[in-house]
Amino acid sequence: MNAMRKTGGVTLVELIVVIAITSIIAAVVAVFIRRPVEGYADAARRAALTDEADTALRRMTRDLRLALPNSVRVNGGFVEYIETTGGGRYRAEPNDLGGGNVLDFSAADTAFDVIGPVPPLAAGNHIVVYNLYSGGTVSNAYSGDNRAAFTSLAGSTVNIASTLFPEPSPAKRFHVVSGPVTYGCVGGQLLRYWGYAYNVAQIAPPTGGSSAVLAGNVGECQFVYTPGALTERIATVSIILQIDSTPAAGGLERIRMFQQAQVDNAP
Question: What is the pLDDT of residues 164-176, one digit of tens each?
């Protein structure tokens, strides 16, 4: 005959006590970990905003350093410049044998020899000689009087559309440009514009071409251009960029960054 076994279980009172104790422990733990968790979330949100702003500023600074001398101009929350892809020295005098293709400044010319390494050239590029201004119609690549369309390359001879350049460069230099570029803030976004036509007067934002968003949730965007002294030939573009977090991010965070880009204005 099997012995009867006495079985036992958890009473309702014991279950309630366990639940109550567990709730108290959970509440105490939550008090201690809430602030660290919120702090981590805030730090992560600020880091993401800082990274977005820093990336945009680095891109703008890198591009502005490649600007054609004396081509930077500012209109409100927009900065425009002509992008260079290379440059070199043109032949200004015949060689020892009296030959060579000299760039003529007394009449319209269609070709010249490059002294030294030939820079990269592609369809759509233009050759600019001695750019002095970003406005007006004289020695201004935006107006086109000192800019000639590149047509072909034969060895070290650059062929261009027939152009009478207004004046020679004291350093016998020329620049290869790919076109104007604009950075500006529209509708809470920082955009880069390119591929549009040259305009004598700055149009902000430019029409035509392409554009891409560099940063969103932009609360403030400022550009200040400070031309350097004539003897220094170094200008400065000061940039202020403020980016705010979205409401869905869990709280308002605001990153405001300042950066300066030096521009070489020696033509």
Answer: 999 999 999 999 9
